[in-house]
Write a structure and sequence with these properties.
Blueprint lengths: L1 E6 L4 E6 L11 H12 L41 H9 L4 H12 L2 H14 L22 H14 L3 H5 L3 E4 L9 E4 L16 E13 L5 E14 L2 E10 L11 H16 L25
Antiparallel strand pairs: 1-2, 1-7, 3-4, 5-6, 6-7
Helix pairs in contact: 1-2, 1-3, 2-3, 3-4
């Protein structure tokens, strides 16, 4: 339903659709989470505290928080760093990693989301509000394709280590109680997955997001959707693409990754359809004209 696609070399908007409409961002919320951590953590290799305060909400009565994506990080584990959590956040879309980062950096989720909202305002986001660090559905966690472009563009251009992390295919995690030999988590981005039907070797990052259904405060069920933010580099051109609220299911009720399909098709189209050519160089004289009553005659 919402699209914003920009050529990063020229700042030309290639395609937009409902770019200022408000949608629920799901896990592309984690882009801002990563920005806040990367800009405020002085040592990414310091270990973090993992307490039940980071995981309890996923086992409570809130249906919107149950079954959350995770990276198998365990309460009481002492060998996980901020860097590990960032890879868990951006590759595996780990919701417990989002809470761990927020609690370790700011002491509470509320304090962390204040930083998120302050940063969004600083970047010029007019229709964005974050109420959590992971993107699981809450009524006051929302944004627009354009605002998410502003956040992602800032992260891409200005935040050290951001693209290195989100453009990684897999990350090895240290051993814990249930994984005594250690384990590996892989990106959820189908366009970066070689075995996927949507794989494009020129796509880099950034973040997936999906909510199949969500429940409002009255317990009513609503259809969710898929979000995706990616960048692409090919033939000397770089693009950033934000899509929001792609269908989660096909007409037969089967789960299907329409967000990945849209990105695949848009990138294949843009690289076949658009080139930039220098028409005139700065300072080049193309022709001369007579000027009447001017300061110069020609």
């Amino acid at each position: 339903e919402g699209v914003y696609m920009v050529n990063l070399d020229t700042d030309v908007v290639i395609y937009s659709k409902n770019e200022n409409e408000i949608y629920y961002p799901a896990s592309i919320t984690k882009i801002m989470t990563a920005v806040i951590v990367l800009e405020n953590c002085s040592n990414l290799d310091a270990t973090v505290r993992i307490g039940y305060d980071a995981t309890n909400e996923f086992w409570g009565s809130d249906l919107n928080k149950q079954g959350a994506s995770n990276a198998a990080l365990e309460a009481g584990q002492t060998n996980i760093t901020y860097r590990d959590c960032l890879y868990a956040l951006m590759l595996a879309s780990a919701c417990e990693a989002a809470n761990i980062l927020a609690l370790n950096l700011c002491g509470s989720i509320e304090n962390f989301t204040q930083l998120m909202n302050s940063k969004a305002k600083q970047l010029g986001c007019l229709n964005t509000h974050f109420s959590n660090a992971h993107g699981l559905w809450e009524e006051n966690n929302y944004t627009t394709p354009y605002d998410m472009y502003l956040i992602s563009r800032y992260a891409y251009d200005r935040v050290p280590n951001f693209m290195e992390i989100c453009d990684t295919y897999s990350h090895d995690f240290p051993a814990n109680q249930y994984n005594p030999g250690g384990y590996t988590k892989f990106t959820t981005n189908a366009l970066m997955t070689p075995s996927s039907d949507f794989y494009l070797d020129y796509v880099h990052g950034i973040k997936t997001g999906s909510i199949d259904v969500y429940y409002d405060k009255d317990g009513n069920t609503h259809s969710g959707g898929r979000c995706l933010v990616t960048t692409a580099q090919k033939n000397g051109y770089t693009y950033l693409l934000v899509t929001m609220q792609a269908p989660f299911y096909d007409g037969d009720g089967n789960s299907y990754n329409y967000a990945a399909l849209d990105h695949y098709n848009l990138y294949e189209w843009v690289y076949k359809s658009f080139t930039y050519k220098e028409v005139v160089t700065q300072g080049e004289i193309c022709t001369e004209l007579d000027v009447e009553q001017g300061e110069e005659d020609r």
